[in-house]
UniProtKB/TrEMBL annotation:
InterPro entries: Big_10, LD-transpeptidase, LD_TPept_cat_dom. Residues 1-19 form the signal peptide. Pathway: Cell wall biogenesis; peptidoglycan biosynthesis. Residues 162-296 form the L,D-TPase catalytic domain. It holds the Pfam family Big_10. This is L,D-transpeptidase. Keywords: Cell shape, Cell wall biogenesis/degradation, Peptidoglycan synthesis, Signal.
Length: 333
């Protein structure tokens, strides 16, 4: 018997059975592992590739604030300080200070002084010259280990030289603009008589003040001396026009709230410099942050840490607060 027909039938049966396995889930098909081979024919073991993520390097020191504002927002007076506040405690003050450079159109000597772990102040030896531009460049990326930081710049505009002298004994404030006497205003200063912790807080402080800010109407209360009860005879709360702040302890040059009979004659205020309505409004109108207000004639001295009282320190004392030995002023090219 010819075995060929039986062999063909058997082969057909095997093919049919194999084809049934395609219904449902396909059966896995074993495949030979593929091993990469070099051109020379040697097999290379396959290894998993590990991708390392490198975190972006963060700056260790940035600037949180610069005072005053730039030239587009304000003009400043000839006594103005440059105040730089960092975003954290400064470990290397010398390196940070070296990164701060000041350039002026009409330069004068100046130096930085550290007043806190985060804040440094630039003051000149003599007043800035008026009507010029001053540039601060903070090259933070040049501080070792701080290369990721962004450099910061600010340009200041110096306006008129407004220098006022308040004589608390003759009760007058004389204002000079660019060296010329332009106004004499009758005033009334602090009367004294309220002693707290050995300090007569009702006396106006003598010394070189700088104007810090101003408001057309300021609410003034007795809370600064701890009097908050309206029934207390020393309590007061008043809306005062044309208020120009000259210290952190609550001293202003402002319009007198009545009591005009004392202006130019005697001291009757709680420590502020009261002026006539016309005089106060005029002074408010010309006031720039950083203008100089010198007060004389009282026994209470302005502390150099009170507001912007930085001119209370002489030049030698001021420079002792620097972390560097050389001035940071650079002549503008």
């Amino acid at each position: 018997m010819n075995p060929l027909p039986r062999m063909l039938a058997l082969a057909a049966l095997i093919t049919t059975v194999a084809a049934c396995t395609t219904e449902g889930t396909p059966a896995p098909v074993a495949q030979a592992a593929v091993t990469p081979v070099h051109a020379a024919g040697a097999a290379v073991p396959k290894k998993p590739v590990t991708v390392k993520k490198v975190a972006a390097k963060k700056a260790k020191l940035e600037i949180a604030d610069i005072t005053p504002e730039g030239e587009a927002k304000e003009k400043v007076g000839v006594g103005f300080p440059i105040i730089v506040t960092f975003d954290r405690k400064v470990a290397d003050r010398a390196a940070a200070e070296a990164a701060l450079q000041v350039q002026a159109d009409r330069p004068v000597d100046g130096a930085w002084r550290w007043v806190t772990d985060r804040k440094v102040v630039y003051r000149t030896k003599t007043y800035w010259r008026p009507h010029q531009k001053v540039q601060l460049n903070a090259r933070l990326s040049q501080i070792p280990g701080n290369e990721a930081a962004k450099d910061v710049s600010r340009r200041f505009a110096v306006g008129y030289s407004n220098i006022s002298v308040v004589n608390t004994r003759s009760h007058v404030m004389k204002v000079r603009r660019d060296g010329k006497l332009v106004k004499s205003i009758p005033i009334s200063a602090g009367r004294g008589g309220m002693v707290k912790n050995g300090v007569d807080v009702y006396l106006t402080t003598s010394g070189t003040h700088l104007t810090m800010n101003k408001k057309p109407l300021e609410t003034m209360t007795s809370a600064w001396m701890g009097v908050t009860d309206p029934k207390d005879p020393q309590y007061y709360k008043e809306e005062i026009p044309w208020a120009v702040r000259i210290s952190d302890s609550g001293e202003y040059v402002h319009q007198s709230a009545g009591y005009y009979q004392y202006l130019g004659r005697s001291n009757q205020s709680h420590g502020c410099v009261r002026a006539t309505p016309a005089g106060a409004k005029w002074f408010y109108g010309i006031a720039q942050r950083g203008d100089v207000v010198k007060i004389t004639g009282t026994k209470r001295e302005l502390d150099w840490r009170n507001g912007w009282g930085y001119w209370q320190l002489n030049w030698t004392e001021w420079k002792k607060g620097s972390a560097l030995t050389k001035s940071a002023v650079a002549k503008k090219s």
